[in-house]
């Protein structure tokens, strides 16, 4: 089974700080990279689906980039707010995994007011 | 558009008891997934349905877990008998189809504690 790794495991920032985290995934036979946000006691929420090398997507203060050749994606949050506190999960879809998503362990973000 | 519904939200049982979880996907979504998320780990796919047929159940512990999706809509996941290590969040998700770029929409999950 191919692995997806996320770093850091957890992060504490102050309100207003900008932050970023990394998702590393297998670059071979790559199909798509998914980012989700999971707040405690809520449903995981889809943020982005990215398929093309060099792709960059943005949703409000959150943006993501994709490098399929080297197998990594960055998620950026500009001007963090307490409501951004959540676990951010990425998942990779590669041809070698029977077409199922392989999930990372997530980055847990806490934004202090 | 209504989201994915799951029930119950929380369940506490003793080991060796049985438990069942229910999921109602978004209307029109052909693909339904059940995930197990143990604290500190990423979600693990237990079973994937395409309409009412099973696409992937390679990680489902079939000696104790079973799932069905009658009529290709609602689904139930059962554990019988439960073990301590089954304590986890059980997430149901659905997507329009099973393509690699399809967004999966998740329900709120059922938090199971086995004592």
Strand and helix map with partners:
The complex is a heterodimer of chains A (113) and B (115).
Chain A: E1 5-7, E2 10-14, E3 19-24, E4 30-38, E5 45-50, E6 56-59, E7 62-67, E8 72-77, E9 86-94, E10 101-103, E11 107-112
Parallel strand pairs in A: 2-11
Antiparallel strand pairs in A: 1-3, 3-8, 4-5, 4-9, 6-7, 7-8, 9-10, 9-11
Chain B: E1 5-7, E2 10-13, E3 19-24, E4 31-37, E5 44-50, E6 53-56, E7 65-68, E8 75-79, E9 88-95, E10 105-106, E11 110-114
Parallel strand pairs in B: 2-11
Antiparallel strand pairs in B: 1-3, 3-8, 4-5, 4-9, 5-6, 7-8, 9-10, 9-11
Offer a quick outline of the entry.
The complex is a heterodimer of chains A (113) and B (115). With 113 residues, chain A is mainly beta.
First-residue to last-residue Cα separation of chain A? 40 Å
Low-confidence stretches of chain A: none
What is the general shape of chain A? globular
Strand-pairing-aware structural class of chain B = mainly beta
- Overall residue-averaged pLDDT value of chain A: 92
- DSSP summary, beta strand count of chain B: 11
- Tell me the total number of β-strands of chain A: 11
Question: Main sheet of chain A, how many strands, which sense, barrel?
Answer: 6 strands, mixed
Q: Which geometry of chain B do the CA atoms define?
A: globular
Which whole number gives the mean pLDDT of chain B? 93
Provide structural commentary:
By secondary structure, chain A is an all-beta fold. Chain A is built from no helices and 11 strands. In chain A, the strands form 2 sheets. In chain A, strands 2, 4, 5, 9, 10 and 11 form a 6-stranded mixed β-sheet that branches. In chain A, strand 9 (86-94) and strand 10 (101-103) form a beta hairpin. The model of chain A has no long low-confidence stretch (mean pLDDT 92). Chain B has 115 residues and is mainly beta. In chain B, 0% of the residues lie in helices and 48% in strands. Chain B has no helices and 11 strands. Chain B has strands spanning 5-7, 10-13, 19-24, 31-37, 44-50, 53-56, 65-68, 75-79, 88-95, 105-106, 110-114. In chain B, a hairpin with a 2-residue loop joins strand 5 and strand 6. Chain B is globular and about 35 Å long.
């Amino acid at each position: 089974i191919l692995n997806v790794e996320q770093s850091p495991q957890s992060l504490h920032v102050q309100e207003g700080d900008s932050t970023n985290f990394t998702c590393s995934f297998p670059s071979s036979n790559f199909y798509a990279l998914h980012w989700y946000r999971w707040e405690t006691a809520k449903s995981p929420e889809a943020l982005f689906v990215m398929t093309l090398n060099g792709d960059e997507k943005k949703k409000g203060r959150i943006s993501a980039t994709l490098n399929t050749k080297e197998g990594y994606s960055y998620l950026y949050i500009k001007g963090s707010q307490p409501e951004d506190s959540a676990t951010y999960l990425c998942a990779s879809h590669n041809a070698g995994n029977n077409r199922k998503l392989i999930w990372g362990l997530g980055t847990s973000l806490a934004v202090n007011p | 558009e209504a989201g994915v519904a799951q029930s119950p939200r929380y369940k506490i049982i003793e080991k060796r008891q049985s438990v069942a979880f229910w999921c109602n996907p978004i209307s029109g979504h052909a693909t339904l997934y059940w995930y197990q998320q143990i604290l500190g780990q990423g979600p693990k796919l237990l079973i994937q349905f395409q309409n009412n047929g099973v696409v992937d159940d390679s990680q489902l512990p079939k000696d104790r877990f079973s799932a069905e999706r009658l009529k290709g809509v609602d689904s139930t996941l059962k554990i019988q008998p439960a073990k301590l290590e089954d304590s986890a969040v059980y997430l149901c998700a659905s997507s329009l189809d099973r393509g690699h770029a399809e967004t999966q929409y998740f329900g709120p999950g059922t938090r199971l504690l086995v004592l």
